[in-house]
Amino acid sequence: MNPRQMTTWTTEDSARLYRIRDWGAGYFDLSDKGEVTAKVGFPAGEVQVSLMDIVSGIGERGLQMPLLLRIENLLDARIALLNESFRAAMARQGYQGSYQGVFPIKVNQQRQVIEEIARFGARYGHGLEAGSKAELVIALSTLPGNGSVVVCNGYKDREFIDLGLRSLKLGYRCIFVIETPTELPIILERSKALGIRPLIGMRAKLATTVGGHWNKTSGDRSIFGLTTSQLIEVVDELKAQGMLDCLQLLHCHLGSQIPNIRDIRSAVMEACRYYINLVREGAPMGFLDLGGGLAVDYLGSRANHTQSMNYTIDEYSAAIVEVVMETLDANQVPHPTIVTESGRPTVAYYSLLLFNIFDVTHFEAGALPSTPPPDENPLIHHLYEVLERLAAGNLQQCYNKTCFYRDEIREQFKRGQVSLRTRSLAENLILEILQRILAILEKNGETPPELEGLREQLADIYYGNLSVFQSLPDHWAIGQVFPVMPIHRLGERPSREAIIADITCDSDGRIDNFIDVHGTRKTLPLHPLKDGEEYYLGVFLVGAYQETLGDLHNLFGDTNVVSVRINEDGSFDLTREDQGDSIADILGYVQYNAKELFERFRKLAEQGVRQGSLSIAERQEILECFAAGLRGYTYFER
Ligand SMILES: *Cc1c(COP(=O)(O)O)cnc(C)c1O
C-alpha cells in the first residue's frame, strides 16, 4: 500500500499501513479521532484510552518529551494471560502437576516493574528469577516469604549462597541452579556450615538447537549449563554426601525470542529425557524449568522470523503440556511443576517510548530557473535536457544519465572547474529529476530493481527527540525492529516517506528499519509537520531489555517515565512520575561535580567583571544561564 497513490484516506487505512492490529496483540488500536489507543479489558467490557489524552495530561504536569510510558494494566494482562494459558492447557489435557511462572529480573530490573509483577503476580504465586547477587537482593526484598519461588541462575559465590540458604528459613523456595561444577562444593560447604539443606537444580546443556538471534544459547557449544558427564558427576557427589533429596529441579534455557514452535517442542522433549533419567537416579525432582524463549511478535506477521513467532501463547503452553505429559506418562514418571522464565513476553507490551519531532530535512529542489542560464556549464544544459525529456518510458535511462552528470559535476568542483553556485544549481536540478522519477514510479506501482533505492535516497529525515542508544539499544546493537508510528493525525494521509534520526548526532543514531507486510522496510510514511503543532511518534513494545542496556552516548540520560493505570470508567490515574536525568545528574555519572563546575564558571565570570568585559548584571545573567543548563533535561526542551 502506497499512501501517495490513494485518493481518500481514513483511519482504517492507517491501521492497515502501520499494522497496529497485527503487532498490537489487542492492546493497541486506533480511535475514530485518528489517535492510537491503549485497550484494556474489564469484566464489564473493553475500555480504550487515547495516548494523546495521556500525553496532554502529562504535559500539563510539566513533563516533557521524550517520555517512557508504562501502562500498568498491560503488564497485569500479560501475567494473567501467561498463567491462565498454562492453567487452561493443563485442565484441558488432564495434567496432574501445576504451572509456576517466574519473571527473570534481568529483562527489566526497574523497581516499579518488579514491584508491579510481585503485586499482581501474587494471585498466581508468580516468582522471580535472579541471575546475580543484586537481583537476589531485589527478589528477596520484593516477594513475600511464604512459599515464593526464587530461581537462582548465574554464577554464585559464598555470599550469594549464604543469602539464598538463609532465605529458606524465611519460607522462600530459593532454588540454586548449578551452572558449573565448581558451584557444588561451595553449596555443600555452606550448607554444612549453616546447617541448612539447599534446594538444588541443575542446568542442562541440551543438544537441541533453536532458530532466532539468541540461538547460541542452545546446543553443545552453549556457554551455559552442565554437559551430560558433569550432570552425572553432580548426581554422584550428591549421592555420596547423602543429599540427592535436595535435587529438585532441572533447568534449561535455549535463548530468548524463539520464533519456531517446532524447536520448542523438540527441546522440551529432550529436557524430559533428562528429567526422567534424574528421577531414575533417585532424585525427588518435582520442577521442570524450561527457561525463557517464548517470543514477542514485533512484526505482527505470525511467521518463523527472528522478530516474529509462528505460534501464540496458547499454542506454546498447550505444546509444552502435551510433550511433557506424553513423554513422562510413557515412563510412569509423575508430572512435575512446569516452570517458565518468560520475561520478554511479560513486559514488552507494557512500555512505549513517546517522542516529538523537532525538525525535518527534505530532499527536494528549491526554485529553478525555467531555462538554463545561457553561459552555464554544459552539464547544466544536459541536466535541463534530461528534465525536459523525462517520461514513463525512459526512467532508467534518465536516471543513469543524471547519476553520470552528478558525478561529473562533483569531480569538476573538486578540481576547481565549477563554482559553488553552479554546483548548487546542478544538485537542485538532480533532486528535481530524481523526485519526478520517483513520482512516476509510484504512480505506475512498479519499480525496476535498479531504482529500488531511490525512495530511500530521497526520504525525508525527521529529527526525533530521543536517543536510540539510551532508549532503543537493541535497535542499534542487533537491528531489532520495533513498531514505530505517529500516535495522532491517523485520519490524515501520511504523505511523506522518512527515516528518523535521533538527537545524538551519531550516524548510528537513527531508525531506518520499520515493519512491513513482508518483513521490514527502510522508510516510514509520516505526516508533514504543521506550524506550531507538535508531532508525536511512539515506539512500541520496548518494555523488555531496553532500559538498562541503554547507555549515555553523547550524555543523553534517562528519559522521564510515567506510569498510568486505566480505570473501568475510561479515566486514568498517573500512578508514578519519575523525572529523567538532569544535566547535573549525567555529569555526575562521568565524575563531574555540578557544584564544582558552577564554582569554576563563577570565578571565570568574576574575572570577566574585573577585566571589564562583563557588567555585574551580565555576570548574573550568564551564571543563571549556566545554572539553568545544569538543572535542565538532557533532551531537546521546548
Ligand atoms: C534471559 C533469560 C531469560 C529470559 O528469557 P526471555 O526469552 O527473554 O523471556 C530466562 N531465563 C534465563 C536463564 C535467562 O538468562
UniProtKB/TrEMBL annotation:
What family name appears in the similarity comment? Belongs to the Orn/Lys/Arg decarboxylase class-II family. SpeA subfamily.
Q: Which residues form the Arginine decarboxylase C-terminal helical domain?
A: 583-636
Which NCBIfam families does the UniProt record give? PRK05354.1, speA
Orn/DAP/Arg decarboxylase 2 N-terminal domain: residues covered: 95-348
Protein's UniProt name: Arginine decarboxylase
Role of this protein: Catalyzes the biosynthesis of agmatine from arginine.
Superkingdom to which the source organism belongs: Bacteria
Question: Enzyme group, top EC level?
Answer: lyase
Give the matching Pfam families: Arg_decarb_HB, Arg_decarbox_C, Orn_Arg_deC_N
Enzyme Commission designation: 4.1.1.19
What cofactors does this protein use?
Answer: Mg(2+); pyridoxal 5'-phosphate
Q: Which InterPro entries match?
A: Ala_racemase/Decarboxylase_C, Arg_decarb_HB, Arg_decarbox_C, Arg_decrbxlase, De-COase2_N, De-COase2_pyr-phos_BS, Orn/DAP/Arg_de-COase, PLP-binding_barrel
Q: Please give the organism.
A: Desulfuromonas versatilis
Which keywords label this protein?
Decarboxylase, Lyase, Magnesium, Metal-binding, Polyamine biosynthesis, Pyridoxal phosphate, Spermidine biosynthesis
**CDD domains recorded:** PLPDE_III_ADC
| Residue ranges annotated for the Arginine decarboxylase helical bundle domain, each copy included | 374-454
